[in-house]
Design a protein that fits this description.
single chain, alpha/beta, TIM Barrel, eight-stranded parallel beta sheet, three-stranded antiparallel beta sheet
Length: 363
């Protein structure tokens, strides 16, 4: 089976593979730039850009961490990442993943537009006002992430009514993805919420709004999985975890080793200050949190609105900004390491080119 290119707005992605946005510092310029260079869609994570290039773009540090959302979501850091990714992929389509739950969502979307990003992908909430922040940038394609046909319908109705536009594509994420889920704990295990059972109803809903391309995500691992999703009506797939195991991935080598060492039973759902269950690897941090012995929670970075300046972090037992940035810096004691359910299958590090070839041509 040969794969057709994926069209997202005015942009054509030659290989219908979208690399998932992963923060802090997992998918920045090196990974995203190389995925786009190899014909997929590289996606830069907007999370924690104040940590980029040893925090030189953070306006102020407190205890070695970027202060408040202006520092954590550094405009200068984000701009530098986008420009450096461009040096790798030239004028090929390049996307940014910007979580709806972040404290400065509108400002960060505008920052991405001003830095020349082509496509913006948004999950972690229902981005009903996403087009508001891209006014004046008609060529920037908008791609919400949903977990149901109902969510897509709500977004389409509101966008059409308020802004006279529709999504250029939609990512449908099932509960096997790494990081935050669009489901409760109980819903994650229900058969009707598994990706293979969600694609058909979401594709049917997308067809009612002018055949919006559906990009399937969560647990996709190899060419066979891609073929299955395309046979169900998806136009492309999104993959995150497998791209961590590449030489070009911006993640610390310790994070790559955590995934190489992980066993199937080590990848679990956990509570998160964002308000959604999150999927990651059981590590020293998760064991500390279970015993309520985790690191102190100070809310230096004010990263996500639902956390309410550390209130929810204290409830679940860890600050997500601090623990993800610890993982970025390679701290195995207090780092938080997200992974999709198939992360345990990683056994070696390969190049982005080799991975893309495997996904297109088969193992």
């Amino acid at each position: 089976m040969s794969f057709e290119p994926l069209k997202i707005g005015k942009h054509t992605i030659q290989k219908p593979i979208v690399q998932g946005g992963m923060g802090v510092g997992i998918s920045w310029d090196k990974l995203a730039g190389n995925v786009s260079k190899e014909g997929g869609l590289g996606v830069i994570s907007a999370v924690g850009t104040g940590y980029y290039e040893n925090k030189i773009h953070a306006s102020k540090l407190v205890s070695g961490r970027p202060l408040d959302s202006l520092g954590f979501y550094s405009r200068e850091g984000f701009d530098a990442i986008i420009k450096n990714a461009r040096k790798v992929c030239d004028d090929k389509p390049l996307a940014a993943n910007i979580l709806y739950a972040i404290t400065d969502y509108g400002r960060v979307v505008r920052d991405a537009c001003e830095s020349g990003i082509d496509i913006i992908i948004t999950g972690a909430g229902l981005p009903t006002n996403m087009p508001e922040f891209t006014e004046g940038y008609p060529d920037v394609a908008l791609v919400p992430i949903v977990s149901s046909a109902k969510a897509l319908k709500i977004i389409c109705k509101r966008w059409q009514m308020r802004y006279g536009r529709l999504p250029d594509a939609v990512v449908l994420e099932g509960p096997k993805s790494g990081g935050h889920q669009g489901f409760t704990y109980e819903q994650c295990s229900m058969p009707e919420n598994q990706l293979e059972n969600l694609v058909a109803p979401v594709v049917a809903e997308a067809a009612l709004w002018g055949n919006i391309p559906v990009i399937a995500a969560g647990g996709i691992w190899d060419k066979k999985d891609i073929e299955e999703m395309l046979s169900l009506g998806a136009k492309g797939v999104q993959m995150g975890t497998r791209f961590i195991a590449t030489h070009e991935c911006d993640a610390h080598e310790n994070m790559k080793q955590v995934l190489i060492d992980a066993k199937k039973e080590d990848i679990v759902l956990m509570a998160s200050p964002v308000g959604y269950p999150a999927q990651g690897v059981r590590t020293n941090l998760t064991r500390l949190v279970e015993k309520r012995e985790g690191p102190a929670i100070k809310c230096i970075s004010n990263c996500v609105a639902p956390c309410n300046r550390g209130v929810e972090a204290k409830e679940v037992g860890f600050c997500i900004a601090d623990r993800l940035s610890d993982a970025f810096e390679g701290n195995l004691e207090t780092g938080l390491f997200f992974s999709g359910t198939n992360g345990y299958k990683i056994d070696k590090i390969i190049s982005v080119k080799e991975l893309m070839d495997k996904l297109i041509d088969g193992e």
